[in-house]
Design a protein that fits this description.
This protein is mostly helical. The protein is built from 16 helices and two strands. It has a single domain, classed as Up-down Bundle (Na+/H+ antiporter like fold). Belongs to the NhaA Na(+)/H(+) (TC 2.A.33) antiporter family.
Length: about 425
């Protein structure tokens, strides 16, 4: 487990991590600005901006800016996640079922255990159980940004694991949203959404992808899914899954999925997710006393313990069980403390966790404010614990990287990849 992938795949992952790092830093900036503004003397201006509504009422799209960010911009984020997930399982190293089993099992464990922890804290019948899925999500951009800052020399296998785990986690989270947080389903609109989705799929499968043809179909699909009662971000994942990964003809160059990913990822990481973070993270804490009051809510405590304890046990535990009861072995270069460090990093939940909190308790409600405090506090504690563990391990892997660089024969491909592939 966690062995090096191919040189081509490892290079692609490194490029992807760099892009996610920039997006993560922008996300953190947006969240910090929102928190400062929401707790400043000008907090009413922030609330007025977040709640300002725009859009055609006749199409049921007269939404607040905060809702547009959650329903609209996050659909772009999930479109990229759908592209990435499909590419990993069709053309990436994870097309091998033995490789795919690890991040899938870790993602499932990393969702089930936090949910159980949350339920254990909120088994009281006060309505808190509706938020059971809040601590189950790992934020890709946030986690990768923290990883880039605290530990840049971890083995490629662990980095790939974190990225794939987070993508699978997002897919499972959006599935949970579709099935458990849809109050009033309108089947007719959902069936109508299949028409532009099918046309979109037909065009991309035939490699016909001018923006003037695809964008209207994508927007129509999004609008109909939104009208159906299913959360509109599901449309982004479905659109991403329709895009072909493998090139029709042999030759150099990326496939269509990778091409579209390169085009849309900067919009997702640089605009969609930071803007959502800006509108979602602006919770008025009310000083230390207000923070203490928020953390007395069992919902907030369930989120904190779910993210910090549940995620670590779920991810590391499922990985250990896979190694214990199958033929999978931990790569010789790694120690189990590395896995625990990455599992702690998986406890950084932000984008999807805040989204589920809004769906569970209502945007702007008192309990939604407590959810935001719980998500922020839990993510911060998980990041700090992961920092302690991974920074200690970083020294060892930095020395190993220096040795490998000295042994490189300057042909552009590190010798360790040539030895493995040869």
């Amino acid at each position: 487990m966690f062995e090096r992938g191919s040189w081509l795949e490892s290079s692609r992952i490194a490029e992807l991590l760099r892009a996610e790092t920039v997006g993560g830093l922008l996300l953190i900036t947006g969240a910090v600005v929102a928190l400062v503004w929401a707790n400043s003397p000008w907090s009413e201006d922030y609330a007025a901006l977040r709640d300002w509504s725009i859009g055609p009422e006749s199409l049921h799209l007269h939404l607040s800016l905060g809702t547009w960010a959650a329903d609209g911009l996050l659909a772009v984020f999930f479109f990229v996640a759908g592209l990435e997930l499909k590419r990993e399982f069709v053309a990436g190293d994870l097309r091998d079922p033995r490789r795919a089993a690890l991040p899938v099992a870790a993602a499932v464990g990393g969702m089930v255990v936090p949910a159980l922890v949350f339920v254990a804290w909120n088994a009281g019948g006060d309505g808190g159980l509706r938020g059971w899925a809040i601590p189950t999500a790992t934020d890709i951009a946030f986690a990768v940004a923290v990883l880039a800052v605290i530990s840049t020399h971890l083995p490629a296998g662990l980095r790939t694991f974190l990225l794939t785990l987070a993508v699978v986690d997002d897919l499972l989270a959006i599935t949970v949203i579709a099935f458990f947080y849809t109050d009033a389903l309108q089947p007719l609109y959902l069936l109508l959404a299949a028409v532009p989705l099918g046309l979109f799929a037909l065009l991309v499968q035939r490699r016909i992808f001018p923006a003037w043809a695809l964008l209207p179909l994508a927007l129509l699909t999004w609008g109909l899914v939104h009208a159906s009662g299913v959360h509109a971000t599901v449309a982004g994942v479905l659109l991403g899954f329709t895009v072909p990964v493998v090139r029709r003809r042999e030759g150099p160059g990326p496939g269509l999925a990778e091409h579209l990913e390169h085009l849309v990822r900067p919009i997702s990481a640089g605009v969609a997710v930071p803007v959502f973070a800006f509108f979602a993270a602006g919770v008025s804490v009310g000083g230390l006393s207000g923070l203490a009051d928020s953390l007395q809510d069992r919902v907030a405590l369930g989120i904190v313990f779910g993210l910090v304890v549940g995620k670590a046990i779920g991810i590391a535990g499922s990985t250990y069980l896979l190694a214990r009861f199958t033929r999978a072995d931990l790569d010789d270069e790694l120690a189990w403390v590395d896995v625990i460090g990455m599992a702690l990093l998986g406890g950084i939940g932000f984008t999807v966790s805040l989204l589920i909190g809004e769906l569970a308790f209502g945007t702007g409600s008192v309990r939604d404010e407590h959810v935001k405090v719980g998500v922020l506090a839990g993510s911060l504690v998980a990041a700090l614990l992961a920092t302690v563990v991974l920074r200690l391990r970083n020294r060892t892997y930095r020395r190993l990287c220096e040795i490998e660089e000295r042994d490189d024969d300057q042909d552009g491909v590190p010798d360790v990849y040539q030895q493995r592939d040869g």
